[in-house]
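Annex B. Sample input.
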Amino acid sequence: YNTGKIGTMRVKYPFAVGHEGSGTVVEVGSAVRNLKPGDNVAVEPAMSCGECDQCLEGRPNTCRELIFLGCPGQAEGCLSEYVVMPEACCIPLPENMTLEQAAISEPLAIGVYAVQQALVLHESLGGASSAECESMAVIGSGPVGLSVMRAAKAAGVKRIYMTDKVKERVEVARSAGIEWAGNPNEEDVVAVLRKKEPLGVQVVVECCGQQDGIDQSIELARRGGKVMIVGIPEEDRISFIAEEFRRKELTMYYVRRQRFCVEKAIDMISNGEVDVSFMITHRMGLEDSKQAFDALIDYSDGIVKAMVEI
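Annex B, continued. Sample output.
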């Protein structure tokens, strides 16, 4: 919406955006076996081929023929009255789960996957067991960053720190009961966290996709630490200070969305393990959705997550 592109893929108008969705089944094809009209479902926006080397290796998120909702040149988005999806991408909801909650299962699944990968990496490189990870910093307190935080709390990470340049998002992060949250526009967050964690943070998860977020991640990570990159940069290239990266012997790991975590996210929401409702700050109809996108671009009106009901 903002740049007219994602990576090298550019929008050709008219085009419907949106990939975080849920809905009610209205019609099914003859080959569908486990869904029927009237079922409420969460929508997994990534349609993998199931046949390429990546899919056969259990990596559908890096499928060579991936089709993604709301991605230019691939598929129209879910800000539409109707959308046609494969059965495998429509996950039935428990009776106690709302469509609003189901829509947030998409970013929560990314958070669950990022934390899983971070803790497995932490343990494999000589850290304590994943259940004993002491400290994690999350750079960026938007919906994905907040999802990472919720997943980390559920996984037992003991001390979680968050940053964001938007005051309202910092307040939302603080309300979740984490160790600390701060705004780099108002204080030196690196200096503050170095006082709180003199050795540095064991795992840093970058969720804002900005160069200064990468820089902060490397500064905050302890020697032998891990930096997970989840945010998608608007620029084609990012960089880091090689000297500090080398001297600390850091490990950097890039995350592309998630794999096999949607059902886990749905279970975490439905059983009360994770609350996602605190992220929703705005609700509106499709006719007013432009206001939500504009507010997200400008970081105005205290917006964190807007729900569009169609």
